[in-house]
Write a structure and sequence with these properties.
By secondary structure, the chain is mainly alpha-helical. The protein contains 4 helices and 2 strands; from the N terminus they run H-E-E-H-H-H.
Length: about 170
């Protein structure tokens, strides 16, 4: 015999179980004993078993709603606390990081000391080249243009003759 399981929501499952309870009461309410799956049940025992499943679903739904509300309350608390924790960490690390026992003291807070920045040789070479290029660019921008020698004549723009305006046209006489 093969069995298939169908994924049901708790609401759907509870509704189906409630329908089974209703059907058992309606159609088998006068029976004293029901044999189901090679096991004998009284109608009251079977109804109690089915009702316990419905009650369990209702309790878990209520617990889930409470858990969801509690989780949302925790999230809103975290929104207020997280920025303060970041500031506290910066404060503590800045105050204790210069101490010879910084790692031990910061370990009490579950923080680690700042890692010293050590640039690689390539980073140092790149920074030096960039600084040299920047100095050269600034020097070129700040150096005035060479002054003209005292005996030299400054070049002048070529002079062009003014263009005469055309004469007004004569009016014809009639």
């Amino acid at each position: 015999m093969s069995t298939t399981t169908v994924k049901q929501s708790k609401v759907t499952r509870a509704a189906r179980i409630q329908a089974v309870v209703t059907g058992l009461k309606q159609f088998f309410g006068t029976w004293q004993k029901l044999t189901i799956g090679a096991k004998d049940y009284t109608l009251a025992d079977l109804l109690a078993l089915l009702q316990s499943a419905i009650t369990a679903d209702q309790v878990t739904a209520a617990d889930r709603d409470k858990l969801t509300a509690d989780a949302e309350a925790a999230r809103s608390t975290y929104l207020a606390v997280d920025p303060v924790l970041r500031l506290v960490k910066m404060f503590v690390v800045s105050q204790l990081s210069d101490d010879p026992n910084a790692a031990e003291k910061l370990g009490v807070f579950m923080y680690s000391p700042r890692k010293a920045y050590t640039p690689t040789a390539a980073q140092k070479a790149s920074a030096a080249a960039k600084a040299k290029a920047t100095r050269a660019a600034h020097k070129a921008a700040l150096t005035p243009a060479p002054a003209a020698s005292p005996g030299a004549v400054a070049p002048q723009a070529p002079v062009t003759a003014p263009v005469a305006a055309p004469a007004p046209a004569a009016k014809p006489t009639a």
